[in-house]
Design a protein that fits this description.
- The structure is a single chain.
- This protein is mostly helical.
- It has one domain: Orthogonal Bundle (N-utilizing Substance Protein B Homolog, Chain A).
- The protein is built from 7 helices and no strands.
- Helix 3 crosses helix 5 and helix 6 packs antiparallel against helix 7.
- Belongs to the NusB family.
- This is Transcription antitermination factor NusB.
- It comes from Gemmobacter fulvus.
- InterPro entries: NusB-like_sf, NusB_fam, NusB_RsmB_TIM44.
């Protein structure tokens, strides 16, 4: 349920950025229409943990400046966050929200969002890129989780 919530949060953040819609409107749309949606193919979307979804999206918006700065520091200087694929930008914001504002262990956050990257980019190099960037972000945001 939380894994599905993470995937939906990335989609919602992407939709907010691309359409200019408010947090409230996008969250309501996802909870009303996307959670458990049956696609034309007959495939049913996961329900997702609505509380986790709402928290991720809300915290990503609340902490966006800090998360974007964390992401920028994790990226190569030639690739500031505004030059990144918008799906990856949304993914980094959702993952950053979980790292910065929630109690989820960083290694869980990294693993979960690498899986989300695999869902969006099944044949690409993006999951490895996401792993490297999130590892850097996690070590900066929660260094105590990595000390021996």
């Amino acid at each position: 349920m939380k894994s599905a919530a993470r995937l939906f949060a990335v989609q919602a953040l992407f939709q907010m950025e691309s359409s200019g819609q408010t947090v409230e409107r996008v969250v309501r749309e996802f909870e009303t229409h996307r959670f458990g949606e049956v696609l034309d193919t007959g495939e049913e979307m996961a329900e997702g943990d609505a509380n986790h979804f709402r928290t991720l999206v809300g915290e990503a918006v609340n902490w966006q400046a800090k998360i974007d700065q964390l992401t920028d520091r994790a990226l190569v200087a030639a690739w500031p966050i505004d030059r990144i694929d918008p799906v990856l930008r949304a993914l980094f914001r959702a993952a950053g929200a979980e790292l910065v504002a929630m109690a989820t262990p960083p290694k869980v956050v990294i693993t979960e969002f690498v899986d989300v990257a695999k869902a969006f980019f099944p044949d690409g190099k993006e999951p490895k890129f996401v792993n490297a960037v999130l590892d850097h972000m996690a070590r900066e945001a929660k260094p105590e989780a990595f000390s021996v």
